[in-house]
Design goal:
The protein is built from 26 helices and no strands. By secondary structure, it is an all-alpha fold. It has two domains: 2-207 and 221-281, no CATH class; 299-529, no CATH class. The longest helix has 35 residues, at 108-142. The protein is globular and about 65 Å long. The two termini are 43 Å apart.
Length: 532
């Protein structure tokens, strides 16, 4: 069985991050594109390393060096858990290749173990780049003993096990409940979003401190942060203390528990694996369908309806793209009930919240647009769309329109909550509160489709690869967020008396760029230009 696990794990990991394409592809253009994507990923990794290193250095200067391992282990574990909720279930219980594997003399334990190991390797990379910079800063400054390095390495190796297990459990529960419902994908997406909101609410309640921080509290800041980390994720504190004190007993005990929980989860899943797969993907159909009437629609309307059907057929797609608009509405409602006092008190300098909040809301709304991956989501069926007697502009406009219609209800809910919450002092502020989010949302939808045209991926096996790990999801899905941050910086740099003109200028420029992008992507030769 070990040999089977080794072979299956190799198959699961052989093309991780498209490394096989770089190694063996003879298509020079594709290799060049994959190489550019790899360079971009390296840049993002460098940013993570830089941030983790600077955060650790800041803790060191505050006299909280002993909290560095626990803090970074908690951060890495939470990231693995949050990202894993959306993809762990689909990776473990993926249907692709299942029929072939069942016909081979392979045990279900080997299949499950290989998929668990795939998740482990992927998340180990994330844990390594988050925790290692902090341990390096600590080691460089304080010169600990050999035990620090040994326990640090062992802790990083064990770190992903508990978050992966928790995310698989959450994903399995969500998938299991939704599989009994009529609209499985939509139900799974709703349950996932509700679960994420519940976790975020619980985390916010843990981190809220009713008292103001006094000089006496600053002296006990270490114990305060330690207590907070224990509430969020106690194993991180135990591991961190074991690494700092060089306690092999503490670290090995934690690692042993991690491994035992991970192995137990894999064993339980392997026992019920076949029945879970069958229940998840079993379908039933009635044969009493009668054609009563036919209705003709316009081309754009028919294509838009098709886009919505494709969208709601994937729970991963829905969950990953709807969380931004939902969070935008939640933030607007929270501001209405709590006011802006908490925000203004937490800012280091006095700022015009009413002038900046439209950009903040826009960035949240535009986190991961559907257009950023809508072309790639067509997969191997892309040739069907291309073969239709339709102009490229019609197909791409339908994808943009679908994204706009999807965000529209959340935008219409958010604005009536946001205006009385912020109480704009002038008519222009009220107009910009409505106009700025609309302009940036429009830009992000068009920008997303433009990025996906440059970086399409059709040969995927799992939707998670496209929605969460593709370069289009990173560049295209975050375009509106990056633009909002840039606009906030520009507004802060401009004197207050020119703030209105600055915001008006930004709206005009963004609309102009959006028009140019739309003209480019909807050109008649779009397919040939982007070699689709």
């Amino acid at each position: 069985m070990l040999k089977q696990i080794k072979i299956l794990t190799g198959l699961e990991l052989c093309n991780i991050y498209n490394l096989n394409v770089l190694r063996f592809s003879k298509d020079r253009k594709r290799k060049k594109k994959e190489l550019s994507i790899m360079i971009l990923w390296l840049f993002l990794i460098a940013m993570v390393v830089f941030y983790a290193g600077n955060l650790s250095y800041g803790l060191l200067k505050l006299g909280l060096a002993d909290l560095i391992p626990a803090y970074l282990i908690t951060a890495a574990s939470l990231l693995i858990f949050f990202f894993g909720i959306f993809k762990a279930g689909s990776v473990i219980f993926q249907k692709g290749g299942y029929d072939i594997l069942c016909s081979l003399p392979i045990t279900r334990t080997a299949i499950v173990a290989s998929r668990f190991l795939r998740l482990y390797v992927e998340n180990l990379v994330m844990a390594f780049f988050i925790v290692t910079p902090g341990l390096f800063v600590y080691a460089w400054s304080l010169k600990p003993g050999v035990s620090f390095y040994i326990l640090g390495v062992l802790s990083i190796l064990a770190l992903p096990l508990i978050p992966i297990t928790a995310s698989i459990l959450a994903g399995a529960v969500i998938t299991g409940i939704s599989s009994r419902m009529k609209h499985k994908s939509l139900a799974a997406a709703v349950l996932s979003v509700l679960f994420v909101l519940l976790v975020l609410y619980a985390s916010s309640r843990l981190s809220v401190m009713e008292e103001t921080i006094t000089p006496e509290m600053l002296k006990e800041l270490s114990s305060v942060v330690t207590g907070l980390l224990k509430k969020i994720y106690p194993p991180a504190v135990w591991l961190g203390e074991g690494i700092i004190t060089g306690s092999f007993a503490t670290c090995l005990a934690c690692i042993g528990v991690f491994v035992a929980v991970f192995a137990a989860a894999a064993a339980i899943v392997s026992v019920f694996f076949h029945s879970i797969i069958q229940n998840l993907y079993a379908t039933s159909a009635r044969h009493n369908y009668e054609l009563k009437s036919m209705k003709a629609n316009s081309v754009i309307s028919s294509l838009c309806r098709r886009e919505f059907k494709r969208y709601f057929s994937s729970s991963i797609y829905v969950t990953n793209t709807i969380i931004g608009p939902v969070m935008g509405c939640v933030l607007s409602g929270a501001l209405l009930f709590t006011g802006t006092g908490l925000i203004t008190r937490s800012l280091p300098i006095p700022l015009d919240v009413c002038a900046l909040m439209p950009f903040v809301i826009s960035g949240i709304f535009c986190t991961m647009t559907t257009t950023a991956t809508s072309i790639s989501m067509e997969g191997k069926n892309w040739w069907i769309l291309k073969s239709l007697p339709l102009a490229p502009g019609s197909i791409l406009n339908a994808k943009i329109l679908m994204n706009l219609l999807l965000i529209l209800p959340f935008y219409l809910i958010s604005e009536p909550l946001l205006i009385p919450a912020l109480k704009p002092g002038s008519f222009s502020d009220c107009i910009f509160l409505i106009l700025i989010p609309a302009v940036i949302i429009l830009f992000s939808c068009v920008y997303g489709i433009a990025v996906n045209l440059h970086f399409p991926v059709f040969n995927w096996e799992n939707e998670v690869t496209i929605v969460k790990q593709s370069i289009s999801a990173v560049l295209g899905g975050m375009g509106g967020l990056f633009l909002s941050v840039l606009c906030i910086i520009l507004v802060l740099l401009v004197p207050d008396e020119y703030s209105t003109l600055c915001r008006l200028f930004l709206c005009i420029v963004i609309l102009g760029i959006t028009a140019l992008l739309h003209k480019k992507v909807s050109a008649p030769d779009a397919w040939q230009r982007y070699e689709l």
